[in-house]
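Sequence in, structure out. First:
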Amino acid sequence: MPTVAEILQHAAAFVRDDRLDPARSLCTMVLDQVPDQPDLLHLLGLIHHREQDHATARRLMRRAIDHATGRSALLHLNLGVVCKAMGRTDEAVEQYRLALSIDPECAEALCNLASALWQRGDVTECLAVSRQAVAAGPSLPQAHHNLANALKATGDLERAIRHYREALDLGATDPQTLTSLAGAQLSAGHVEACATTARAALDASPDDAPIARIYLGQAQVNQGRFDEAAASFDAALESPEGRAEALINLGALHTLTGAPREAMACYDRLVAIRPDDAPARSNALGTRLYLADVDPGELMQAHVSWGRRLEADAGAEPPHRFDRAIDRPLRIGYVSPDFRRHAVAMFIEPILEHHDARAVDVHCYAEVAAPDATTNRLRSYVPHWRNTCGLTDEQVAEQVRLDRIDILVDLAGHTANNRLGVFARRPAPIQVTYLGYPATTGLSRVDYRLTDRIAQPTIQPSLHVERLWRLPLGISCFRPPPDAPPVDPLSEAREPITFGSLAGAAKINDDVIDLWSLVLRRVENARLRLARDCFVGTVRDELIDRFRARGVDPSRLDIGPRAAGEQPLDSYRRIDVALDTFPYAGHTTTCEALWMGVPVVTLAGSTLASRMSASVLWQIDQEDWVAHHDGRFIEIAARLASVERSPDARRALRRRVADAGVCRPRPFTMALEEVYRRMWRSRLLRHIRRSRSRPRADHPQRLRTESALPEP
């Protein structure tokens, strides 16, 4: 009669040979006689796990642990594997921790724990455990893959790339490693390498790699191969796993190439698939700003509906315990994905640089996956900098609470990678939105929008949930790019006059083309220069056709990307007068044109998005370049075209911009700090009034008859 140990050896050999039926028979035969034998219970559990019967496997392994004569790291490790396969991630984490309490250097347990932590979104702990796993098991491909995932999520892209490559060199066969490497390469700006790696992932698993197709499509977008990118995204749509991401990217591609209605159709499909996906709804809201026929009131209500949904998901507002001293330095938190080379950085940099540490204690919460030189420069201005990549909205909100922020400022609105989910949790007693998005957030828990009297006049109805707080010196302060070229004084030698725009394609709607075409009819022989990297191939051809349909000879059009080696602002050297878009006007492009000495004509409407250029022109005392109807726009453009172009005209305009409030950061920042102080005092006053109005236990509540004190 063989012993239990001998039977166990035979059964284990059957399992190794994938002969599960005889292995089960042996285990069952002995367990009928010895029902609590832990090793056989464990092995039978492994057999059921191999057969995808995870519930039975879990029950058997728990019995094995209960009847084991000593503590076994292996039992807890394998039970963790079974729990993870069942989707019981928290239980898996618990079992891996128990295994490590028995054997702290168990590389496989560390590796599995890191994977489970990643799955449930604990990126920070995943990073720490992954480092331990690599140290304990440097030859485990999965350990390097886990570490690379965590590094990528926290923005350490080059190290992530190195560890993905290490996993591949160690023999990782899962195409997911190649796909993840492609994503890291794309985020790091290695576009060609991303395309190559994504194709390798597709070759390894041609029928099951939708995310690799999406990364390939994103690389093709960066290469200006828009038709190929669309084909890659369309292919990813065929897989349920990739459908949502494919729709997001198709929508972004349509917006980039000037087709916002097609983008809206993609986002509508996405919302139908994922109705509770707040970022998907954010994309849809932001895209509506480009549509000329959207009703402002309906647009606001769409934002409000989005905000109510997000706030309901976030739960009740927590109480705020804050230091009520009036004149202490205020803790200001800025939240943005754009602390990098980005338009928003041009406007927040002068503020961060000139904040007075005696008045404010500045914290930046940076959702920046690929930091750059601009990131490093911005970081040098502030005492507190936190990387929020890889953190959930609740984790960021908790950090804001721990930092005891008084005023939390959103700089993104509904733009990409925003953190409005943090604001929905109201981690700060005062919350503000500013700069990044020219419409309401839709969140009732955002108290104020910073604006000015031109961008949002008091005579116009507010289209915002937030209260409008008008800055005295203008809506923004502009920091010209450090690599901005000198002003070109030689445009006078170029004939004929050249109008132009560097606006994104989505802003150039049919109404804009109608008006610009009328300008070209009015100014004989004038040309139109449109410079954007997306103006290639069919995108360029279709844009030319739209002008041709309005009677504009294509020979008068200069539409295309920048010349090789040309910096973005170099394009203004070939433009005499800049024409603004509507109803989504420029802001950054307007400031850049003026800095390059190019006058700007804008058509101001009734929304913030349509009045940003008007605000900038007011700041430089050039309101005569602001039109309020089509006829006036044409007149201003024609008048500017007729002005003699002297060699000093452009330099004079740059000097005027440099001397104006739009480029004077110190007084602008002082005024902003005073606004923050007034917000704080108003908050304290409301708190005091509420405290006094609460009924005391020993007195009946009295009816309040005094009028409420208005906020500034």
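Second:
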Amino acid sequence: MTRIAFFGGTFDPPHRGHTEAASWVARSGEVDEVLVVPVYGHAFDKKPWLDFEVRCELCRLAFGGLDHVSVSDIEATLPRPSYTIETIRALKRKYPDASFRLVVGTDIVSDLPRWREAEELLRIAPPLVLARKGYDGPGIAADLPEISSSELRAMLVERRASPSPELEARLLRFLEPQVLARIWERGYDRNLPRSSARGTPST
């Protein structure tokens, strides 16, 4: 039976914190494959900066160089809003001979009981916990960079307004080169409102 880690997220955009987390899980020995699953749209969150198709495109670039890691766009085929339990049920139908684990950080564990059908979710996909700095609890001891997605988007806005080698170097600390290149090449940064530069940081 193939052991699959379900690594869901908005990935808006996918950054090195995401890719390093996937790499740690893939090398943990707990699973055989890591399936990166961008959410189509959260039930209550505001609309992501990037369209679903673009986030999938950038995820394939970001995670493409990692062994035993792949990207699934299965949420495009599911009813909205997106709930993790429904996505994993769909994946179990697609991969009936696989077992699943739900990748979460120690910062999320306390929220799991409030997720939709939490008891059933944790039964069909027991959590695979990644330790996060500043949060107590057991988990895979992954030394992951702390990256704020909103601060990253603010840097992209700043770079669009005032490009500089220093800012480009800062962005490359957080984004894979191929992801940053695709954002510039396709002009995805033009979709970011200038207010992003003054947003409250959040991950």
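Remark: The chain has two domains: 2-130, 149-194.
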